[in-house]
Specification:
Strand order of the largest sheet: 3-2-1-7-19-18
InterPro entries: FAD/NAD-bd_sf, HpyO/CreE_NAD-binding, L-asp_N-monooxygenase_NS-form
Oligomer: single chain
Structural class: alpha/beta
Domain FAD-dependent urate hydroxylase HpyO/Asp monooxygenase CreE-like FAD/NAD(P)-binding: 7-166
Radius of gyration: 25 Å
Distance between the termini: 16 Å
Protein name: FAD/NAD(P)-binding protein
Number of helices: 16
Biased composition (Basic and acidic residues): 533-544
Largest sheet: 6 strands, mixed
Region (Disordered): 532-563
Helix content: 25-40%
């Protein structure tokens, strides 16, 4: 019997997770049939590009070691077998409440890859290709061809699985204009990208640098341009003091909100947990899927999501902190449900039951914390921003505010439900930003060090609703915020501290762009449309491609990442399982491999 050929493009956490699920399902679904398995990635299998071990240990994981696993447990909805494995903390023997360096996570992922590889039966021949896949072609009903950068003949594939992870993008119109402006005037412009891969050497010591973006890319930038250039912290972890090396630029940072993402929670949610999902579960998603016509997130989805987040908040407040409420949870819960999403009685209900406004759930205030802020000058803004970050750190580490942790749990639940809506809505715009701001912020120590950098003058805050202009007359970048009327900051360097959008039309990946040109369907937001049940790539003719599967951030079935928190359902792991089982069933039952369709490997 000739061996079927399966090509996996991308060997990072997603590719590793898919391989683990493939190995788990092989005995049941594929038996002892021979299989040629090709794994294509220029970066090491397991960690891939983002988590490669050859990067600065100053860059940390953004999750606690105890919250990271690539293995299934009983909470993951699987058809395949559960194959438990250690969390990052258990594998490394480290304190579970520690944020480990990314190279350490890379080593864990390498070990997980080797474990999945070693679980493959002897009938599977695994080929590792340390190169880049350039394109996929071939007839819909016949063998596919995967063209690689380092060989003249393509790999034959009965099925192709794309687990590409985060990709680079071509510059959009604005970035091209800014790059051209910088070239004309001898300035420095650093476009969106993965901070660990950027060349920051042109950012010179002592000179001002405008930074647009206050999320996790900024945190990496901050670290590499301070500690990465020889600076150090003295004092305690709770109150660090920054000692400059003299090699740092001065970072002027702002964004739409003007503040960093909320700190990671410094405590675990104990006691009674909110029963989720309640108002945004499978029934609600089914109802939305049953509607005709396009769905608008803010109009059709957000009211139900907000109702769910509020439900979790008040459930925790009433059950864990009843002294700060009036009435009973049962009565409040019944009234909350009866009012419905956005109901006119919700405001009065909350005001009567929750006396302190600080205990109320206010998503608008969460999303725009500096709305209306006006200060007389830039120095006053520094004090206001330091006070904001200090208050956030205090609140996020105080269990007295545990409704915040309940909202975090609800946001994770919502994210899992939204995946089912697939290409019917765009979650990559406002919702993804709100979710990241609320639930995907930096570790507390990073924000304490940000405060120390601010006190040292190495970081300066620009404020919310940041605007950046290219001043042709004077040959400089200019930044301003309405929070400081009339104030303008000029610099000869601009860094866009954010990841590029994962669009198939703007991607720098010729493979992904080629799939789109070959008939793959994309959403208006640019994500690759896939069947949410198994990841098969949707075509513009309305049919899923039988021989092409895609998983990851560039698809409509995007999950939070290639790894997950143990005991939380592991959406990405469930997707990996479904895709692996679909792939094996197709190779067993549906593949037709004409001998002359493609050259042998």
């Amino acid at each position: 019997m000739s061996a079927a050929s399966l090509v996996i493009v991308g060997a990072g956490p997603r590719g590793t997770g898919f391989l683990e699920r493939l190995a788990a399902a092989l005995p049941e679904l594929y038996g002892d049939r021979p299989l040629d398995l090709h794994l294509v990635d220029p970066y090491p299998p397991g960690p891939g590009r983002i988590w490669r071990t050859a990067q600065s240990p100053l860059l940390w994981m953004n999750s606690l070691a105890e919250d990271v696993t690539v293995f299934t447990d009983d909470t993951v909805r699987l058809e395949g077998p559960v194959r438990p494995g250690p969390t990052l903390a258990e594998w490394s023997g480290t304190d579970g409440r520690r944020f480990v360096p990314r190279p350490e996570q890379g080593a864990y992922l390498r070990w997980a890859y080797e474990r999945a590889r070693d679980a493959l039966p002897a009938t599977v021949t695994l080929h590792e290709h340390r190169t880049t896949a350039l394109r996929v072609d071939g007839p819909r009903e016949g063998r596919q061809r995967v063209w690689l950068a380092d060989r003249a003949t393509p790999l034959p594939a009965d099925l192709v699985v794309l687990t590409l992870g985060h990709l680079d993008a071509e510059p959009d119109a604005e970035q091209r204009e800014l790059a051209g402006f910088a070239a004309r005037h001898g300035l420095v412009h650093v476009p969106p990208g993965h901070t660990a891969d950027l060349d920051l050497s042109a950012l010179r010591a002592g000179e001002p640098v405008l930074v647009r973006g206050f999320g996790l890319a900024f945190v990496d930038l901050m670290v590499l341009l301070t500690e990465g250039r020889g600076g150090r912290y003295e004092g305690t972890e709770e109150a660090p003091v920054y000692v400059p090396s003299g090699n740092e630029p001065v970072l002027y940072v702002g964004s739409r909100r003007g503040v960093p993402y909320h700190s990671k929670l410094g405590y675990a949610l104990d006691g009674e947990r909110p029963p989720l999902p309640r108002f945004f579960g499978p029934d609600r998603v089914d109802a939305l899927l049953g509607r005709d016509g396009p769905l608008d997130f803010r109009r059709d989805v957000w009211p139900h999501v907000s109702h769910e987040l509020g439900w979790a908040h008040y459930h925790r407040l009433f059950t864990a902190h009843p002294e700060r409420t009036t009435g009973t949870w049962g009565a409040f819960a019944a009234a909350w449900a009866a009012a419905g999403p956005g109901g006119p009685g919700l405001g009065g209900l909350v005001a009567a039951a929750v006396p302190d406004p600080a205990d109320r759930f206010d998503p608008d205030a969460l999303d725009r914390p500096l709305d209306g802020l006006r200060v007389p000058d830039a120095d006053a803004l520094q004090g206001a921003l330091r006070a904001h970050v200090t208050a956030d750190l205090r609140r996020r580490h105080d269990p007295a505010h545990s409704p915040d942790a309940a909202v975090f749990a609800a946001a994770l639940s919502v994210y899992g439900q939204l995946v089912r809506l697939g290409e019917r809505i765009d979650t990559d715009g406002w919702w993804h930003g709100f979710f990241s701001f609320l639930a995907s912020g930096p570790p507390g120590p990073r924000l304490r060090r940000l405060l120390a950098l601010s006190e040292a003058g190495t970081v300066r805050f620009l404020g919310p609703r940041l605007t950046v202009e290219a001043d042709e007359r004077h040959g400089v970048f200019r930044a301003s915020s309405p929070a400081v009327p009339g104030a303008v900051t000029e610099a000869r360097a601009l860094v866009e501290a954010r990841l590029p959008a994962p669009t198939v039309t703007g991607t720098a990946s010729p493979l992904l762009r080629g799939l789109y040109e070959d008939g793959a369907r994309a959403t208006p937001g640019g994500l690759l449309a896939v069947d949410p049940s198994d990841g098969r790539i949707a075509q513009r003719d309305g049919r899923p491609h039988p021989r092409r599967i895609a998983l990851g951030p560039h698809t409509t079935a995007r999950a939070g990442g290639g790894f997950t928190r143990p005991g939380t359902g592991g959406l990405a792991l469930a997707q990996n399982d479904a895709a692996a089982r679909a792939a094996l069933a197709f190779l067993r039952d549906g593949a037709r491999r004409p001998a002359a369709a493609a050259p042998a490997a």
